[in-house]
Structure formats: C-alpha cells, structure tokens
Write a structure and sequence with these properties.
Blueprint (H helix, E strand, L loop, with lengths): L1 H25 L1 H8 L5 H13 L5 H10 L8 H48 L1
Helix pairs in contact: 2-3, 2-4, 3-4
C-alpha cells in the first residue's frame, strides 16, 4: 500500500519536473532576445509557445533567430561592410605608398647612374 502511494507521488513529481523543464527550455530564445533588446522578441516569444505544440521542432530556429541580433551591431551586416570599406581604404593607402616608393627608387637609380656616368667620363679625360 505504501509503495503504491510512493509510486504515485514519484509519478506526479517527475511529471511536474518534466512539465516545468519543457516550459523553462522553450523560453530560452525569448530570454536571449529580451537580454539583447531584439526587435522581434515578441514574435520569438509567441513562436516559442507555438513550438510547444510541435514538440519544440521550431526551437533551434528560434534560438538562432534570437542570437543573431546584437544591439551594438544589429544583424552584423553593416559592421562587415564597414570592415570591408576600411580594408579597401588601407589597401589604397598601401598601393599609394608602394607607388611613391617605386618612384623614389627609380629617381635614386637614375641619379646613381648619372653619377656613375660622370665618374666614368672624368676618368676618360
């Protein structure tokens, strides 16, 4: 008789823990979205509840959706474009410096060859 009540109590306890666990897990994407001040946090929250009825089939997509957004950089695309722009500016500057150095080297070689020509002409006279 005691074991029957104990088994019933364990069944109720395990059921409640599993129920609470599923509810707590389904809310993780919403909590991430709320923490990051996501512009679609309400949609993520509602989709999380819908995901309960699909046995959490949508949950991984909601987690990805929630983690893509960051307040300081948005979806991240603008930051990448800015990085590419900065990189292209640096490449242009380096190309300009290289051209300038090549010109200086050519000028030095020309001056050196004139100096050698003058020295060889002085030796013949």
């Amino acid at each position: 008789m005691f074991l029957d009540y104990f088994a019933l109590g364990m069944l109720i306890f395990v059921s409640l823990v599993l129920f609470y666990g599923v509810i707590a897990i389904h809310d993780i994407p919403y909590e991430i979205a709320k923490e990051r001040d996501h512009p679609h946090q309400d949609a993520i929250h509602y989709a999380g509840w819908v995901s309960l009825f699909t046995l959490h089939a949508l949950w991984p997509f909601l987690w990805i959706w929630a983690t893509l957004w960051r307040k300081e950089r948005g979806w991240g695309f603008k930051q990448q474009n800015k990085l590419n722009h900065d990189l292209s500016l640096k490449m242009e500057q380096m190309d300009h410096e290289l051209t300038k150095l090549k010109l200086e080297l050519a000028t030095l070689k020309k001056a050196d060859s004139r100096g050698n020509d003058m020295t060889s002409q002085e030796g013949h006279h």
